[in-house]
Amino acid sequence: MDAAAAVLPQHIAIIMDGNGRWAKSRYLPRALGHREGAEAVRRTVTACGELGVPYLTLFAFSSENWKRPADEVDDLMWLLRSYLQREVNELNRQRVRIGFIGERSALAPDLVSLIENAEMQTRQNDRLIFTIAVNYGGQHDIVAAAQRLAREVAAGHMQPDQITPESFAAHLMTTGLPDPDLIIRTSGEQRLSNFMLWQAAYSELIFLDTLWPDFSRQSLEQAIELFNRRERRFGATGES
Ligand code: IPE
Ligand code: IPE
Ligand code: MG
Question: I need a surface site. Which of 22, 75, 115, 240 has the fewest CB within 10 A?
Fold first, then answer.
């Protein structure tokens, strides 16, 4: 890749997968795979800040992950609490603004408070907009937007034909974020698992075999390099 001509994706979203397999291959409990996964989160946030990527979104817990054993759900929620308790100072030092998407009403009230505090305490930062998707489902995101629009129409505040792709997107949880240019999924699985279904319309999808706890700055740079080899057409011919 010609480094000078390289394009930096403005918004990178990552489906962090493979913590369980990372642990299993070492005969460790899955919880330790998740703990190592949290280290990969720290590395990735720092790397995006240093590379100058302005938006990073990480899929941490899907609306379907409640199907996992209660112990594992607890481990994941405790890990998120500990991340939020420990990391806010470092995020401020790196001028990272943290935000969350996903349905908060199902989360424990103390976790919601930690989330709100972290959002508030980092809201002045502008180097990297870092979004964590927790209890997030793409279908739910779309349905919730449709319900809000339907209520506005029913209340007479809006006409049905004012529902456009733009006004619809403004009602999604990702409002204010550009659509991801690049979606990376680790661990070799090649599916979206209900992540950003609307927003992924023109994202480049890159699947890496690396398990999430092994994800490094080098893995991120590799994905950006692969992204740069893709020709994005957005429906046009590709000839200018
Ligand atoms: C990703 O790793 C973490 C979450 C989905 C919360 P997994 O726990 O899905 O790991 P595998 O897929 O079992 O290896
Ligand atoms: C997707 O991973 C969700 C997150 C990364 C948070 P899963 O491991 O839950 O996905 P499936 O079940 O393999 O599709
Ligand atoms: Mg998985």
Answer: 240
160 Cα: distance to centroid of ligand 1 (angstroms): 41
Query: What are the residue ranges of helices labelled H in 103-240?
Result: 109-121, 138-154, 165-169, 217-229
Question: Does residue 236 form part of some domain?
Answer: no
pLDDT digits (tens, 9 = 90+) for 91-145: 999 999 999 999 999 999 999 999 999 999 999 999 999 999 999 999 999 999 9
Query: Distance, CA 72 to ligand 1 centroid (Å)?
Result: 10
Indicate if ligand 1 lies below 6 Å from the C-beta of 215: no
Domain that includes residue 39, residue range:
11-229
Query: Cα(68)–Cα(237) distance, rounded to whole angstroms?
Result: 44
* pLDDT above 60 for 4: no
Distance, CA of 223 to CA of 212 (rounded, Å): 13
Structural domain count of the chain: 1
Rg of the chain (C-alpha set): 18
| 235: in domain | no
Is 49 part of any domain?
Answer: yes
In angstroms, the CA 213 to CA 38 distance is 8
**For residue 2, is it within any domain?**
no
202/181 Cα distance (integer angstroms):
7
CB 200 within 8 A of CB 179: yes
